[in-house]
Design goal:
Largest sheet: 3 strands, antiparallel
CATH class of the largest domain: Mainly Alpha
Number of strands: 3
Helix content: 55-70%
Distance between the termini: 42 Å
Strand order of the largest sheet: 1-2-3
Order of helices and strands: HHHHHHHHEEEHHHHHHHH
CATH topology of the largest domain: hpI Integrase, Chain A
CATH architecture of the largest domain: Orthogonal Bundle
Number of domains: 2
Number of helices: 16
């Protein structure tokens, strides 16, 4: 069932490598990228996504023979968005394309490359709000404790999963951790989130123990491999060593996001956990379990690193859904109890 979407995504990525833009568009895009990075402080992944979306637009403009930015009007971008819709882009992807175009048009107006600000004429598609996929507590513990500690990378994998669930990190935040970013004595991790916003998150005892064992037993061996391959300059002073990646690959380099995703998916399959379990599933579970335990929404917002509490509020819907399930199962007039009594009456 997953082959269709994956095939579609891979075909779009291949098509993206064939997108051709005019030299003027490429030059404007490079200047816009600098603005996004320096002035807006967007993350590298966000920059990459917006650049990919705008290069798709640049290819469309080239095919239409449009090289005057003032000519980019609703009559131009509406057929473009329809073209994306015909290619079965999801609503969330279309919305991201619209955001990228809006930012670009606003930048063109700010830098006086177009005469008027026409971003108000560009509307985003309405998106359904999808509830985050979470694991219950038992399943989460199964996943976190899944790695075989007798295997070569078992200690590292266990530390990664423990830290994911203990701190609710994004996969990019975890991969970006340096050794100095984790203080096990005080019990905190310092990470850089979206928009280059730094935050400090406390670490629980289980995660602290797992990271400590990994640091002492597994990481030195992986670091030695990295040094043998010339990944890091030698000799390593204390300051330089503290700035090296916390989680290392089997060849001693910094862990990549795709490798962490494969790790989580592999352990979920091994434990028989259904669905597309990903690193973000542990982040969702972290937030949901905190709210179910009575945590304040604002506190969860700070721990997750959300700029707006409205982003965090989606987890209250998950909590409400659980409350309804418990009510239906346990209350004398709950839906499940009523249906059960009706079924008994029919059988009797």
């Amino acid at each position: 069932m997953d082959a269709g979407p994956k095939t579609a995504r891979s075909s779009r990525q291949k098509a993206g490598s064939r997108w051709k833009c005019t030299p003027a568009f490429e030059a404007a895009l490079q200047a816009f990228r600098i603005y996004q990075s320096v002035e807006l402080g967007l993350s590298p992944n966000t920059l990459l996504a917006y650049r990919r979306d705008l290069r798709r637009l640049g290819d469309y403009l080239r095919r239409k023979g449009i090289d005057d930015w003032d000519a980019i009007t609703p009559e131009v971008w509406q057929p473009y968005l329809l073209e994306l819709l015909e290619e079965r882009y999801r609503e969330t992807t279309l919305a991201r394309h619209v955001v990228a175009i809006r930012m670009w048009l606003r930048w063109l107006h700010t830098t006086k490359q177009i005469s008027t600000d026409r971003t108000a004429l560009l509307e985003s598609p309405k998106c359904w709000q999808r509830l985050p996929k979470t694991l219950n507590l038992d399943r989460t513990v199964e996943l976190v404790e899944s790695p075989d500690l007798t295997q070569h990378l078992g200690l590292r994998d266990r530390a990664i999963l423990e830290l994911f669930y203990a701190c609710g990190l994004r996969v990019s935040e975890l991969c970006g951790l340096d050794d100095r970013d984790v203080d096990l004595k005080v019990g905190y991790v310092r990470c850089m989130g979206k928009g280059r916003r730094e935050r400090v998150v406390p670490i629980g005892r289980a995660a602290r123990d797992a990271v400590e064992v990994y640091r002492e037993q597994s990481r030195p061996l992986l670091l030695e491999r990295g040094l043998e391959r010339g990944r890091y300059k030698t000799p390593l002073g204390r300051s330089a060593a503290a700035g090296l990646p916390l989680f290392l690959s089997r060849t001693g380099g910094r862990m990549e996001r795709t490798a962490v995703w494969r790790l989580v998916r592999r352990e979920a399959v091994r434990r028989g956990i259904p669905g597309q379990v990903s690193p973000h599933t542990l982040r969702h579970s972290f937030a949901t379990h905190l709210l179910e335990g009575g945590a304040d929404l604002r506190v969860v917002q700070e721990l997750l690193g959300h700029a707006s509490v409205s982003t965090t509020e989606i987890y209250t819907h998950v909590q409400t859904r659980r409350l309804k399930e418990v009510h239906a199962r346990c209350h004398p007039h709950g839906a499940d109890r009523v249906a059960e009594r009706k079924s008994r009456a029919l059988r009797g």
